[in-house]
Amino acid sequence: MGKTFRALVIDKDGDDQVVEERQLTDDDLMAGDVVIDVSHSTVNYKDGLAISGAAPVVRKFPMIGGIDLAGTVARSDYPGIMPGDRVVVNGWGLSERHFGGYAERARVNGDWVVLLPEKFSFERAMAVGTAGYTAMLCVMALEEQNITPDQGPILVTGASGGVGTVAISILAKLGYEVHACTGRVSEAGFLKDLGATEIIDRAEFSDKAKPMGAERWAGAVDVAGGNTLANVISQIKYNGAVAACGLADSMNLPSSVAPFILRNVTLTGVDSVMAPRERRTAAWHRLAEDLDFDKLEALSETIGLSDVPKAAKDILAGKVRGRLIVDIKK
User: Fold this and answer.
1) What is the rounded distance in angstroms from the CA atom of residue 266 to the CA atom of residue 289?
2) Where are the chain's structural domains?
3) How much is the pLDDT for 1?
4) How many CB atoms lie within 10 A of CB 33?
5) Which residues is 196 bridged to in the sheet?
6) In the prediction, which pLDDT does 15 show?
């Protein structure tokens, strides 16, 4: 038997889901052509769903949780990925169908692996994680719709969460006026420190949307879906765009076609799970240049592997702001 390592495993006990630390070996890992010594992971909203069983994220049991990981390549049979390389992996079914980042070792498909830009330590990379990488993809999507700072403010929903906080920081550094929508208006000072200029109570978007409202924003980053997204779309300016990446409120979209055909509004979906490697690499290099690392540290907290189950409950309860980093060795 090979050397053992710690892993946080999600399993089934009859009809109940259980989460426990176990000692595993490389023989227990799933197939792949790159083995990674994992240094850090994260806790995202999706991790909260997976750990708690609140949604059927996990498709195969037992499962090592964690949709993110950063670490050093230990072995590789994949061209261009070498032992000693510093890498990050996000999505690709980690914590769903393939063992994820809540373990000291991981074996993954080399197609999933992105080389970390030099500016990123492992901890800093996981301060970004899937949430921050998704935020960058949303910003890129708005840019590709020609939404520039001179066209007006950008709204960010779920502003106190992982995607929202990083999106605010990036957009502000790029020169956009940023409005932050949050259910926790008590976080106004924190959000303004990140770069938001106006704080909007999420309750403003809870009612059914009108087909069209007053034009307020040139663009938006939305993590909510549901009535929130419908209300946002109805208030986007002519030729504006919304980058939608989440469904924290609902999978439904009770909207109207009016903004799309009368104001030429674009709704662009942003997927971070299956995005191709070239897109991921571009996003990570943009993050290295466009993210304020001082602000990133301000919105991040580091916990240990054994703290993950409680953190998963907290993030679903809306008690977490910013980013939670998991130091796998703690």
Assistant:
1) 27
2) 5-116+299-327, 130-269
3) 54
4) 16
5) 178
6) 86
Taking the C-alpha atoms of residue 272 and residue 134, their distance in angstroms, rounded to an integer, is 6
86: three-class secondary structure by DSSP: strand
Architecture of the CATH domain 5-116+299-327: Alpha-Beta Complex (3.90)
With beta carbons less than 8 A apart as the criterion, state whether 32 and 77 touch.
no
Contact 32, 99 (CB under 8 A): no
Taking the C-alpha atoms of residue 51 and residue 307, their distance in angstroms, rounded to an integer, is 12
Q: Which CATH class is domain 130-269?
A: alpha beta
d(CA 143, CA 88) in angstroms, rounded, equals 25
Full-model pTM: 0.91
Cα 138 to Cα 220: distance, rounded to the nearest angstrom: 9
**Which H or E run includes 267?**
strand 266-269
Instruction: Confirm whether 5-116+299-327 and 130-269 share one CATH topology.
Output: no
> Phi, psi (5° rounding) for residue 169?
-60, -45
CA distance 82 to 258: 52
Q: Write the DSSP symbol of residue 313.
A: H
110-145 residue pLDDT tens = 999 999 999 999 999 999 999 999 999 999 999 999
Residues 6+ apart with CB under 8 A from 131: 42, 44, 45, 161, 162, 163, 166, 323
The 10s digit of each residue's pLDDT in 235-264 is: 999 999 999 999 988 999 999 999 999 999
Under-50 pLDDT residues of the chain = none
Residues β-bridged to residue 105: 37
Are 217 and 240 contacting, i.e. CB atoms less than 8 angstroms apart? yes
DSSP-H helix ranges across 65-155? 122-144
Taking each continuous run of H as one helix and of E as one strand, the counts in the chain are 9, 16
- Helix/strand/coil for 303: strand
Q: Is the peptide bond before 276 cis (omega within 30 degrees of 0)?
A: no
